[in-house]
TrEMBL record:
Transmembrane region(s): 12-34, 64-84, 96-118, 124-145, 157-175, 187-208, 271-292, 304-325, 337-359, 365-391, 403-423, 429-453
Keyword Transmembrane part of the UniProt annotation: yes
Name under which the protein is recorded: Major facilitator superfamily (MFS) profile domain-containing protein
UniProt-listed InterPro entries: GLUT, MFS_dom, MFS_sugar_transport-like, MFS_trans_sf, Sugar/inositol_transpt
Alphabetical UniProt keywords: Glycoprotein, Membrane, Transmembrane, Transmembrane helix, Transport
Main location: membrane
Length: 477
C-alpha cells in the first residue's frame, strides 16, 4: 500500500455493510418482491374493490391497478428526490438515513396490514412511502459512505449501493417464492419483509459517526476531529485530513441552494454527467432484461417454473458480479471502467437483438441469447451498475454535493419510470429491436465519459471540479 494511504478497517467495513443492509437492500427488495405474488395481489384487489365499492373491475382496469402498484414506488422516488437536499442540510447524512429507515418501516406496516384493513389505498400508500424513503437513500447513502472513507477507498465504498440493490432483488425473489411467503395467505408478509433488514441494519446507526465533512460544514470542527479519529485511528492522518477540509472549505462551507446549483454555469457539466449516468444506467435496459428473460427461457424450451428459476439465477449472477465492485473500483480508474461497461453493454444488447430474431427460425440461437444476457449483466456491473451512484461525490465539492446527488437520484427514478412505461409499448410494436434503443443510450454514456469525465480515482473534488467549469468547452486531464 502506498505511503499515506489507509486501507479497510473493521469499523468502516461494518458501517458499510450495516448501512447497506438497513437502507439499500430494502430498495432492491421492493423491486424484486412484487412479480411472483402478483396473481394473488391482483385477485385481492378485485375482491376488495367488489366488497368496498361494489365495483367489479374489468381486465383493463386491473391492468391499470397493477401498474399503479408497481409504478407508484417510482413516483414516490421522483417526489422524494426533491426533498433530499433540504433534509441533508437540516438532519445530516446519518439523520436522513434514520428518517428513511423509519419511512421504510411505515411503508412495511401499510403493506402488511392492507389486506386486514381491506384497503387498496393502504397498499398504494405503503408503496408510495417506500419510494419516498428510497429516494432519500439514493441521494444520501453513497455520499455518506464516501465521506466516511479515506479518499483512496471512495470508489470501493461507493459500489455498496449497487451491491445492496442487487442483493435486495435476490432476497425479494427468495421471499416471494411460493414455498416461502409467496402464497395467497402470506403475500402481505412477503411485501413487508424488508422491514427485517431495516431493523437489523440500522439498529447501530446512532453508534456510527456523522460525516466529518458535514460536521465541518456546520462549523463543528472538534466533533469532526473526533469522528475522524474513530474512523482512522491515526493522529497524523486525522491532522492531515482536517487541514485538507479547512483548506477546501474554509472551516465552514457556504450554504448552496438547489436553485443556485442548477443556475451555476461552472456546475453545468458535472450536473450533466451525474444526471446522464443515472439516466443511462436505467435506460440501458437492466430492468427490461428481468422482464424479458423469462420469455427467452420459455422460448428456449424450458417450463415456466424452470424459467423463473433461471431468472432467479440471473439475479444471483448480478449480485455476485456486484460483489466484485469494491475490488474493481480500488484497482482500476473510473473512466476506462465506465467506457468499457457502456461499450460492451451496447455490444451484447445488439447481439441479443440478433439472437432474438434468429431464434425464431434457428432454435439453437435461444441458448446464445442466454449467454448474451449473462455477458450483458457482467458488462453492466463493470461500471454502469455502481459508478453513477458515487461519481457525484467525486466531482462535486461538499457544498453543492447534496443537491447534485439528489438531482441525479431524480433522473434515476425518472428514467426507471419512463422505461417501465415505454418498453412494453415499443416491445409490442417493434419486438426485440427495442433493445437497440437501450444500446443507443449506452453509446451516449460512452461518448460522454470519453469526452467530458476527468479521471476521479484518488483525486480530491477540488482538483477535478475546475476541469469541468467550462461546460461543453471543458478539456479533461
Amino acid at each position: 500500500m502506498a505511503e499515506g494511504q489507509q486501507g479497510w478497517t473493521a469499523f468502516l467495513l461494518f458501517i458499510c455493510v450495516s448501512i447497506t443492509v438497513g437502507s439499500v437492500v430494502p430498495i432492491g427488495y421492493a423491486f424484486g418482491v412484487v412479480n411472483a405474488p402478483s396473481a394473488f395481489i391482483r385477485s385481492w384487489i378485485m375482491e376488495s374493490a367488489l366488497a368496498r365499492y361494489s365495483s367489479r373491475l374489468g381486465d383493463s382496469q386491473m391492468t391499470v391497478m397493477m401498474s399503479a402498484v408497481v409504478s407508484i414506488f417510482l413516483i414516490g422516488g421522483m417526489l422524494g428526490a426533491s426533498f433530499a437536499p433540504i433534509f441533508s442540510d437540516r438532519l445530516g447524512r446519518r439523520g436522513i438515513l434514520t428518517l428513511s429507515g423509519l419511512l421504510t418501516l411505515v411503508s412495511c406496516i401499510c403493506q402488511l396490514f392492507c389486506r386486514m384493513a381491506n384497503s387498496i389505498e393502504m397498499l398504494l400508500l405503503g408503496r408510495l412511502i417506500g419510494g419516498l424513503a428510497a429516494a432519500l437513500i439514493y441521494a444520501t447513502q453513497p455520499m455518506y459512505l464516501v465521506e466516511l472513507a479515506p479518499a483512496e477507498l471512495s470508489g470501493s465504498v461507493g459500489v455498496f449501493t449497487s451491491i445492496g440493490i442487487t442483493g435486495g432483488i435476490v432476497l425479494g425473489q427468495v421471499f416471494s417464492f411460493d414455498f416461502v411467503l409467496g402464497t395467497d395467505k402470506l403475500w402481505t408478509y412477503a411485501l413487508a419483509g424488508s422491514g427485517i433488514f431495516v431493523v437489523v441494519g440500522l439498529a447501530p446507526i446512532f453508534w456510527f459517526p456523522e460525516s466529518p465533512r458535514f460536521l465541518m460544514s456546520q462549523g463543528k470542527k472538534e466533533k469532526a476531529r473526533v469522528a475522524l479519529m474513530r474512523l482512522r485511528r491515526d493522529e497524523g492522518r486525522v491532522t492531515a485530513e482536517m487541514a485538507e477540509y479547512e483548506a477546501t472549505s474554509g472551516v465552514v462551507d457556504q450554504k448552496v441552494t438547489t436553485k443556485e446549483v442548477l443556475c451555476n454555469k461552472k456546475l453545468k457539466m458535472p450536473l450533466i454527467i451525474v444526471s446522464s449516468f443515472h439516466f443511462v444506467q436505467q435506460m440501458s435496459g437492466i430492468n427490461a432484461i428481468w422482464f424479458y428473460s423469462v420469455n427467452i427461457f420459455t422460448q428456449s424450451g424450458f417450463t415456466l417454473t424452470v424459467a423463473l428459476w433461471l431468472n432467479f439465477a440471473l439475479g444471483l449472477e448480478n449480485f455476485l458480479f456486484a460483489l466484485l465492485g469494491p475490488v474493481l473500483m480500488r484497482r482500476f480508474n473510473r473512466r476506462p471502467m465506465m467506457i468499457l461497461s457502456c461499450f460492451f453493454c451496447a455490444i451484447f444488447l445488439t447481439l441479443l437483438v440478433v439472437g432474438l430474431e434468429l431464434m425464431l427460425s434457428i432454435h439453437e440461437f435461444s441458448y446464445a441469447c442466454i449467454a448474451f444476457l449473462s455477458l450483458y449483466i457482467l458488462a453492466f456491473n463493470v461500471g454502469l451498475a455502481s459508478i453513477p451512484f458515487f461519481i457525484g461525490s467525486e466531482i462535486f465539492k461538499p457544498a453543492p454535493r447534496p443537491s447534485a446527488m439528489a438531482f441525479g437520484s431524480f433522473f434515476n427514478w425518472l428514467s426507471n419510470f419512463l422505461l417501465g412505461m415505454i418498453f412494453p409499448v415499443l416491445n409490442s410494436a417493434i419486438g426485440p429491436f427495442v433493445f437497440l434503443l437501450c444500446a443507443g443510450f449506452c453509446v451516449y454514456g460512452l461518448l460522454l465519459t470519453y469526452r467530458y469525465l476527468p479521471e476521479t480515482r484518488n483525486r480530491d473534488p477540488k482538483e477535478v471540479a475546475p476541469l469541468m467549469e467550462n461546460g461543453f468547452k471543458s478539456k479533461i486531464k
